[in-house]
Amino acid sequence: MKLRKFVDALPIPPLLKPTLRSGEYTYYEVTMKEAKQALHHDIPETTIWGYEGIYPGPTIEVVQGEKVFIKWMNDLPEHHLFPIDHTVHGAEKEIPDVRTVVHLHGGRTEPESDGYPDAWFSKGFGKFGSFFQKSVYEYDNQQSSRALWYHDHAIGLTRLNIYAGLAGFYLLRDWREQSLNLPSGEYEIPLLLQDRSFREDGSLAYPVQPKDNVSGIFPSIVPSFFGDTIVVNGKVWPYLDVAPRKYRFRLLNAANARFFRLTLDSDQLFYQIGTDSGFLEKPIGVKSLLLAPAERLDVIIDFSNLGGKKITLKNDAPTHFPIGDPVDPDTTGIVMQFRVTMPLSTIDTSVIPDFMGPIQWLPEHTARNNRYLQLSEEKDWYGRPLFLLDQKKWDDPITEQPHVGTTEIWNFVNTDNDDHPIHIHLVQFQLLDRCSFDVDFYKKTKQIKYTDRPIPPHAGERGWKDTIRCPPGFITRIIIPFFPYTGQYVWHCHMLEHEDYEMMRPYRVLPPS
Ligand code: C2O
């Protein structure tokens, strides 16, 4: 159904209040609950699943070095909001339909607290998965400032749990960020971008099966979900009243599969200052911003001298990026609106810094191992598309086992037609380059024939990352230091329908050799 645009104000998720704050640590309790929430003025309230019963979840704000414990609890109903495909890996009929586990995306987290997909638990910890170890997760927050996010990661169900609302921001602060004099407080706005589809009664709609369901399976997983409505911070096409000054936006693509390529209809520049995992060295002015699922961007928009103007944030990324259906300019092509209607209460002394700080670039010769990992589309037993990493399934034996303290280069050899955003838990990495190759020749011979010179990273990707776009027909090379923990983690495509159906692999960080 089609809803009016810019009728609701953009909500800002509230900060989560600690249960206990001592000199040594901060302790939070977070309960996942079903609730009703108004997502648009013209439809009845929507049933959502939210951390603390709100969607998006409350923002967790921490400072570097602060030790944080969070008890994540599940008080959700016993029946899922959406149809469950029991043929998907880890989603067998015998295990509870409603199971959850929380991953802090981008966090350098010990394995027991990382939200391993098989560490799920049901309501009241009644049942739990084989990897469940504890209910109070520990985060030591040793990383520098950046926007992390927390979201559900239950095996075979992540797409549905996040779609129901289980995602929120986790902002890590440090002294360097403080010293930069960026727009802050009410002038720093998190934007969690998603697409959704609604029914007339206000409920969220998620497909029961693909359009051309040849499998005979019902319900049956869709290869990727695309909604017809854009939702920001849990409101449909919202507006934000701003003052004529600089604002800092923490952008997060929390959609299941949709890419966003953002522009401002005022033809203004965005000043990008950061990536997934902290600041760039220098800001860059860009007219468009590309965000794959799970990527974050740190940007400043300057509304000075635009008093009285209405500025629309638009999207022109096709589905199945880069080759699918174009956006509908009247629906998925629109994200939200900024209205420069507020008075300037004080003079804007915040800045767009010239330099945020040096990044330590990893030289290629430090890499101990060079892995080639294919991203491919195959067919499953029932004739449905099946996406695989290195042609292996979730249950196949572990093949990626770096030693702690070593650095590796991973080459993602994409022989599929989609751009897959690959995320690796625990680590941050740097993009080396992308190089086109002969896909058909590779498929026949498993040998690489490059067809051009490598393309160095675009200025906006020259920083630390935890999720990287791997375009079709290219080999994307990243360099990754593995530390400080040993143990079992996962890496996967962050299109949620892909990670739920075999495009996810365990990997293990081994003790020093
Ligand atoms: Cu944002 Cu493994 O996930």
TrEMBL record:
A molecular-function term among this protein's GO annotations: oxidoreductase activity
Residues of the Plastocyanin-like domain: 40-81, 390-511
InterPro entries: Cu-oxidase-like_N, Cu-oxidase_C, Cu-oxidase_fam, Cupredoxin
Secretion signal span: none
One Pfam entry name: Cu-oxidase_2
Transmembrane domains' residue ranges: none
Family: Belongs to the multicopper oxidase family.
Protein name per its UniProtKB record: Copper oxidase
